[in-house]
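User: Hey, quick favor. My workstation is busy. Could you predict this chain's structure for me?
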Amino acid sequence: MDYIFFNITLRSFENLQEGKNMIGFAYPDISPIIFSLGPVAIRWYSMAYLVGIIAAWLLVSRDVKKYDLGLTKENMEDAAFYVTLGIILGGRVGYMLVYGRDMLFQSPLSIFEIWKGGMSFHGGIIGVIIALWLLSRKLKYEFLRLTDMICVYVPIGIFLGRLANFANDELWGRETSVPWAVRFPSGGYLPRHPSQLYEALTEGLLMFAILLFCWRCQKIREKTGFVSGLFLFLYGFFRMSMEHFRQPDVQMGFFFKYITMGQMLSLPFLILGLCLIVRAIRLSK
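Assistant: No problem, here it is.
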């Protein structure tokens, strides 16, 4: 009798779990590799970086001529090199110091194993800021004026990067019962928020639309540092908001029961961005 009761209870639990898992959409079968050329495999993440950098370089080069920003073709080639270096080094070092310290202590050389994944966007931004500061000194060009023209197009890379996260079945959201939930294989096939797509729409498309509108307005463009501040503020705001839907990194979890590492890292960006906006407005009066 006990055996029959246990069997019925177990089957009921399995049916409940199966019903729960049927909420939302099944994750599409997406290969992490776009195509291969012999031993070289082209992955979604690397393609997102490549396309994002090239698109930003072409668009900024166009703006330099259109708005007569005082830079040459050679200067823009230097900018592309510095920004690429800042993204890769900043992103990787930032990830290892914040999220992969145990791995770094066990194997210090793992910091160079970029092909295994592990990049921090916050670290990438800091890396780009340092790279552009060095470039501004080399070119004897105003730092904030340089960051203004480049940060407008950074959301293109963010948008593509978040789509790559979705394609790679990583950085998915928390469990939910919303109709558009997605059952990710690496997330246990449980219905989860497709937080990568939320971030692609907010940190990517929406932020790009706002920054581009401001950049094309001459009065705003002439307020040096305003667009840079707006970029930092919007990224901090959107990232902190979207973290409510995103599953925290397993090695980090929550801080103070509710706050994620992503929110903690985004707060300084939000504050610094607001300070730059206020500064730009005051100096323009």
